[in-house]
């Protein structure tokens, strides 16, 4: 269980605050309210490691969590919250884009999307920033408990079909923090990225 016992290490607000590379990093990203904090807490087996937002879009920091294996989970700020002023939104976008494009020890991206509305324009932009590097992206279609089996599987198939255009390193699965479904599949994928 790769994410178990993750420990908070540091938060940064600007690219200039990035710590020197130290171990592989796995980024977690998603629209605000996509269920990212819940997914991190579920994977880490920790009730409140990542802060579950009452106000969507509130997390404006990159939060680094050290894993037992020495790698880092990096929680990126949620994007796409409409009530955030344009200037702030641009700053976050800049921070996320810079981190995704330039961080040399970032080996993969876990991208959370609400399974009821996956592949929004901003989700595609994130994939567009990262996929050209050839590094892997794994999409968690979150809150899958809110769909019945047929529609959930149909969503998974449709998303996989769209992702195939980016290459075989871009994968997807269903995930529910509420039901704890998909935890092992996600662990297996990320463990593979780390070559463990
Ligand atoms: P974040 O903004 O992406 O970090 O999203 P949060 O983790 O804060 O979750 C946003 C909302 O979705 C909260 O009200 C959560 O309780 C709810 N939520 C998150 N994961 C699940 C899930 O697996 N199932 C259900 N039914 N609700 C979820």
TrEMBL record:
<keyword id="KW-0479">Metal-binding</keyword>
<dbReference type="GO" id="GO:0005525">
    <property type="term" value="F:GTP binding"/>
</dbReference>
<dbReference type="InterPro" id="IPR027417">
    <property type="entry name" value="P-loop_NTPase"/>
</dbReference>
<comment type="function">
    <text>Necessary for normal cell division and for the maintenance of normal septation.</text>
</comment>
<keyword id="KW-0547">Nucleotide-binding</keyword>
<dbReference type="GO" id="GO:0000917">
    <property type="term" value="P:division septum assembly"/>
</dbReference>
<keyword id="KW-0342">GTP-binding</keyword>
<dbReference type="InterPro" id="IPR019987">
    <property type="entry name" value="GTP-bd_ribosome_bio_YsxC"/>
</dbReference>
<dbReference type="Pfam" id="PF01926">
    <property type="entry name" value="MMR_HSR1"/>
</dbReference>
<dbReference type="GO" id="GO:0005829">
    <property type="term" value="C:cytosol"/>
</dbReference>
<keyword id="KW-0132">Cell division</keyword>
<protein>
    <recommendedName>
        <fullName>Probable GTP-binding protein EngB</fullName>
    </recommendedName>
</protein>
<dbReference type="InterPro" id="IPR030393">
    <property type="entry name" value="G_ENGB_dom"/>
</dbReference>
<comment type="similarity">
    <text>Belongs to the TRAFAC class TrmE-Era-EngA-EngB-Septin-like GTPase superfamily. EngB GTPase family.</text>
</comment>
<feature type="domain" description="EngB-type G">
    <location>
        <begin position="22"/>
        <end position="196"/>
    </location>
</feature>
<keyword id="KW-0131">Cell cycle</keyword>
<keyword id="KW-0717">Septation</keyword>
<keyword id="KW-0460">Magnesium</keyword>
<dbReference type="InterPro" id="IPR017937">
    <property type="entry name" value="Thioredoxin_CS"/>
</dbReference>
<dbReference type="InterPro" id="IPR006073">
    <property type="entry name" value="GTP-bd"/>
</dbReference>
<dbReference type="GO" id="GO:0046872">
    <property type="term" value="F:metal ion binding"/>
</dbReference>
């Amino acid at each position: 269980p790769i994410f178990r016992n993750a420990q908070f290490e540091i938060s940064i607000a600007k690219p200039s605050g990035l710590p020197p590379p130290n171990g592989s990093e796995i980024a977690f990203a998603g629209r605000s309210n996509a269920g990212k904090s819940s997914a991190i807490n579920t994977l880490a087996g920790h009730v409140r490691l990542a802060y579950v937002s009452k106000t969507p879009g509130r997390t404006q920091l990159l939060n680094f969590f050290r894993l037992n294996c020495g790698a880092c989970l990096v929680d990126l700020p949620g994007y796409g919250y409409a009530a955030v002023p344009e200037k702030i939104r641009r700053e976050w976008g800049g921070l996320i884009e810079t981190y995704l494009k330039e961080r040399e020890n970032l080996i993969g991206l876990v991208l959370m999307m609400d399974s009821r509305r996956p592949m929004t324009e901003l989700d595609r932009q994130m994939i567009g920033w990262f996929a050209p590097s050839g590094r892997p992206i794994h999409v968690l279609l979150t809150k899958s408990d809110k769909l019945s089996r047929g529609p959930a599987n149909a969503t998974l198939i449709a998303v996989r079909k769209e992702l195939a255009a980016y290459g075989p390193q871009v994968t997807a699965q269903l995930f529910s923090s509420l039901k704890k479904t998909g935890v092992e599949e996600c662990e297996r994928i990320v463990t593979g990225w780390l070559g463990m």
